[in-house]
Amino acid sequence: MNNFNSIKSIFSQFLIPIFFAFIFVIFFNAIKPLLIYNLIENILFSALIISFCFFFHKIKTRRFLFLVLTIFFNFFLIFETLYYYLFEAILSSSAIFILIESNNSEITEFISSHIDVKIISFLVFSFLITIYSVYKIFKYLKFTTDLKINRFTLFEIILNIYFVLKLTGFIIYNGPYIVLKTPLNYLSEINKFKVYGNEHKMGNFTNLTISNNHEDELFVIVVGESTNKKHFNLYGDYHRETTPLLNDIKEELSVFNNVISPHTYTIASLSKVLTLGNYENPEKIYQGSVLQLFNQADFQTYWISNQRPIGMMDTHITKIGMGANKYVFLNTKHTNDNTNFDNLLLKPFNDAINDTGSKKVIFLHLLGTHMDYKMRYGKNDEYFKDTPSSEFKSGNASSIINAYDNAVRYNDKLLREIIETVRNQQLKSYVFFFSDHGQEVYDDADFFGHTIDQNTTKNMFEIPMFIWTSDKYNKNKVLNFNSDNKYMTDDFIHSIADISGIRCSEIDSTRSIFNKNFKARKRIILDSVDYDIFFK
Fold first, then answer.
1. How many other CB atoms sit within 10 Å of the CB of residue 407?
2. 397: Cα within 13 Å, side-chain hemisphere
3. The domain 217-534 belongs to what CATH superfamily?
4. CA of 422: how far to CAs of 129, 218, 261, 347, 532, in Å?
5. Is 443:388 a contact under the CB 8 Å cutoff?
6. Model confidence over 18-60: pLDDT tens digits?
7. Is 289 helix (H, G, I), strand (E, B) or coil?
8. 258, 284, 318, 396: least buried by Cβ within 10 Å?
9. What are the sequence ranges of the domains in the chain?
10. pTM to 2 decimals?
């Protein structure tokens, strides 16, 4: 076998897994242009790897590089293929951000929720193909011991491939490029978020005033997780009674019908919700948080979370939460332990209520209805066991819907208990609830979970939101309430400041859904999409 044929044969060993992955994806999904682009990118990238390996003339070095880079290439090929299979989307920086900020428990729960026979089969065949490819490449390398391609020529080839990938834009489909680039961006973001946390509890809000300096106040904000509005029976249009206890006090609640989150995943959504940042002014994410606002207004602030505080490093939301005067992270168990149920928030919640201080704001960050749904409640709370109403019957759809609805019903019990606890204090108070983002649970798509702002459904954006106010609160302030106002929660800080009697230059009353001056704005999602037109 001559040198040229050996190189062709080595190239073919890269093409085998590339086309196997491509066939796997198009067998279960429709062919789209981006799949073709990704195919071309993978072929070009494999040519770049081969050129790089032949840049080294020593056969031992060449063999070592081919071994490492073939495994490396196939690993990323498998990863991006399975990502597309699950979400019908190309791997992105946002997906890597999520991975960095996810803890082992979340990753394990995600895998256990989504793994199926097709994925296992693909992994087995991919593993075998990788072993076969390495074996064949080593065999063909024996015929290239005397091959010494001009290094300048190889450098030209590598440079040309890179420029083709860059100029065509195909480089955005390259897994290694995304994975290597994203941590740098992530570290930059983390550095920007150092304006929050332990050492920066006070913000720089200007001309701040508060409307009440004398009366005791207790404000509670409950941040839900992955809660689907359609499955929240409080809205009256779901076939199951998932919120019976909230339904009993519905007349006391102001329930908002037309609320969406700015993103379909926690990091991006809450980074805006809990700060001054919004679609129009994303840079304001770093210019002040809701906790800093309350601190500056002389409230005693609490952040009580059932979400684990760290992934690979402190998360954006952890940094913001640590801006509270007192913060508690309950979920610190290891992967092989069951995660805490949200009722464990109640003890530190009661401790905060009984703590000294006349003006308090308590944030409760739930695990809510985060997957794996069946791990969000105990055996005694497994209420729904029948076959749910859904047009999608594939796989474990029924058991997944049942688990999700049980998790919603468990949240209902917790929310009612929080409200009753606050009611019993007989103070000027409110309990405000919203979810960080929504969730698709076999309603509009044969899918459960949420994506990272790709291939989204309406249910990933739509969220439940309501407020309960005490008698003393109602005597002091009348909320401007229109249940059908269009609202996106990246204006949360303006709304919460308004109902808490806080004024400052940075707060805009026209962005408060509780204010008579409220102005509905275009709800832009996915960078440039008008939500109300796209999901009309």
1. 28
2. 17
3. Alkaline Phosphatase, subunit A (3.40.720.10)
4. 61, 8, 26, 13, 36
5. no
6. 999 999 999 988 888 989 999 999 999 999 999 999 999 898 9
7. strand
8. 396
9. 3-189, 217-534
10. 0.80
